[in-house]
From TrEMBL:
Its cofactor is Zn(2+). It comes from the Bacteria. Residues 46-262 form the Extradiol ring-cleavage dioxygenase class III enzyme subunit B domain. PANTHER family: 4,5-DOPA DIOXYGENASE EXTRADIOL-LIKE PROTEIN. Keywords: Dioxygenase, Metal-binding, Oxidoreductase, Zinc. InterPro entries: Extradiol_dOase_DODA, Xdiol_dOase_suB. It comes from Wenjunlia vitaminophila. GO terms for molecular function: ferrous iron binding; oxidoreductase activity, acting on single donors with incorporation of molecular oxygen, incorporation of two atoms of oxygen; zinc ion binding. Belongs to the DODA-type extradiol aromatic ring-opening dioxygenase family. This is Extradiol ring-cleavage dioxygenase.
Length: 284
């Protein structure tokens, strides 16, 4: 069948997700995450789906999920429509038709939306009909496949590091309420420089992707926020690793939402997909 990998995954992951304990105050604050979200074919990659699902199962099931995705830049800050089963945004092209029929009918997120809006001092535009883009729903279909957690997506008002760190800081308290704060991007995203040989695995991952990934992992280990913020000029592999920077920028929301910056960052997923680093981490 066309989507056999996801169907097989769901048959195993669905019962595990149903049995997952729901967050309580006794669990303490949830971590903040930065994840490499992949394109819709992630949902054909059994190993990557298992990695994402195992990550979700390693913590209590959140009472809400707030996602800042590479695929929504808007100022002033905006939030998605909160109604249950908000339609998805199929913000990609050139893929098989079945990806445009996928759904993720998450519950009503009205309460979560109000909490997010209250956490931000500036005016927040509450979008009447915008749904979740693939930076949110693709990884969530693997992490929380039952779509049983309210989800709100917040736009990125800028790609600059310091303002996004500040957005994360203002969202930090939500973690104490069982909300999972997620920055969704891709650790390297040099799509214009990929070849069929790289995508197909016939040749090694490109040096610009490997070098940038190693540099970012080291900067996170050293808690070097200044270096991370200055990645455009300090990171090897630039500008090939990020010819545009929107897939790296959500990292700063996650770091801002942490209690200790990058100091307690822990890589949970690494490796490569289509030659791109899928490194993903969490911070306490």
């Amino acid at each position: 069948m066309p989507n056999a990998a996801y169907e097989r995954f769901l048959s195993e992951a669905g019962p595990r997700s149903a049995a997952q304990s729901l967050w309580t105050a006794a669990d303490g604050p949830l971590p903040a995450l930065y994840l490499s979200h992949g394109a819709p074919p992630l949902l054909d990659d059994a190993d990557w789906m298992r990695q994402l699902n195992a990550w979700a199962l390693s913590m209590p099931k959140p009472r809400g999920i707030l996602v800042v995705s590479a695929h929504w830049e808007a100022a002033p800050v905006a939030v998605t429509a909160p109604a249950a089963a908000t339609p998805l945004v199929y913000d990609f092209h050139g893929f098989e038709e079945r990806y445009y029929r996928m759904t993720y009918p998450s519950p009503d997120a009205g309460d979560l939306t109000r909490r997010v809006v209250a956490a931000l001092p500036e005016r927040v535009h509450e979008h009447p009909d915008r749904g979740l883009d693939h930076g949110a729903w693709v990884p969530l279909k693997a992490m929380y496949p039952l779509a049983d957690v309210p989800v709100v997506q917040l736009s990125m008002p800028t790609l600059a590091a310091e303002p996004l760190l500040d957005v994360g800081r203002r969202l930090r308290a939500l973690r104490d309420e069982g909300v999972l704060v997620v920055g969704s991007g891709f650790m390297t995203h040099g799509l214009p420089f990929l070849t069929r040989e790289i995508i197909g695995g016939a040749v090694p991952e490109p040096a610009w992707s490997v070098d940038f990934d190693a540099w970012a992992a080291d900067a996170l280990r050293r808690n070097d926020l200044d270096a991370l913020a200055d990645f455009r000029t300090k990171a090897p592999g630039m500008p090939y690793a990020h010819p545009t920077v929107e897939h790296f920028s959500p990292l700063f929301v996650a770091l801002g939402a942490s209690s200790a910056g990058a100091e307690r960052a822990r890589s949970v997923i690494d490796g490569y997909w289509w030659g791109l680093s899928k490194r993903s981490f969490q911070v306490a």
